[in-house]
Amino acid sequence: MRILVVGAGAVGGYFGARLAAAGKNVHFLVRPARAALLRDKGLTVVSPVGDVRLETPLTVTAAEISSPFDLIILTCKAFDLAQAIDDIQPAVGANSRIIPLLNGMSHLGTLERHFGSAKVLGGQCAVTATVTPEGTIRHLNAMHAISFGEREGGISETAGVIEQTLSGAGFDVRASDTILQDMWEKWYFLATMAAATCLMRGPLGAILAAPGGRTLIEELRSEVTAIASKAGHAPRPPYVARTDQMLFQQGSPVTASMLRDMLAGLPIEADQIIGDLIDRADLDELAVPALRTAYAHLRVYQAILAARAQPG
Description:
The protein is built from 12 helices and 10 strands.
């Protein structure tokens, strides 16, 4: 199976490197400058579960794609989706399948409109990784998993083949028969944590220690739960219990990656992670004041970032 990993950043670089090191037929779709860097320096993953070194990773730019790939793993940020769709057009053939590992849910409809429902699987990943200034992928803990599946449910023969292909690469992989529910649950947790830590500009432990901090997290969690429930995807009790241990752990140093991006002055996925939830709440006439406050904070940050980017 020919696999195209779109991007060689923290997520694409991590999973793609492990797949390539396991002997899978993997190409990285990257910009010319990133391709040149990978040719010169290779790709290195530093991880507590074992390092990976690719001396000569296979790369391709959008202009160089000459034939379809069997599997396309989409790892770009949600705000780069439009460009990624243009780039992968020549890589998508009649029998290709796309696994998007993006945050939120709105990308599914966008991909379906461009490539058709049959080609677009649901997908999600769990990994905490960063890219150092030298281009090394640094994996920060032992968590590393990909799950995917047919959006209508069940496990198709194609999903089974993909699971078999991706297995044995040193990370957890699973074909899920409830992938949309899985994605909604991840969104529930991510939106709650991102809204809280970005609004308060600090880790969960510091928020919990502040007056009213626990109440804020509980309000955000309740609002996201109501939206997910209206969509028919209320978080399942075992997932809520598991993630509550993280959200309400005293002294926790955990922050959302969105906050880390804000502190670094980088673009953020405010619209895809928080704004889309508010749009859904409006359609269902749900009151979400805590989410609106968090979203306003994120939009102010985006406006300041855009102003700084203006010449002069």
